[in-house]
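Need residues for this backbone.
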């Protein structure tokens, strides 16, 4: 079960410019996905 946290969504909006509810409209089938290799993060991003 997923619970919506309005406070966390507001925090994400302030920090990243995207509210969490935007995820409900995200479509992996049409997304453009690239590897972030700007730095060595120690993991694939």
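Answer:
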């Amino acid at each position: 079960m997923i619970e919506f946290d309005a406070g966390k969504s507001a925090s994400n909006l302030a920090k990243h410019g995207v509210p969490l509810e935007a995820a409900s409209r995200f479509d992996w089938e049409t997304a453009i996905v690239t590897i972030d290799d700007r730095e060595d993060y120690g993991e694939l991003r």
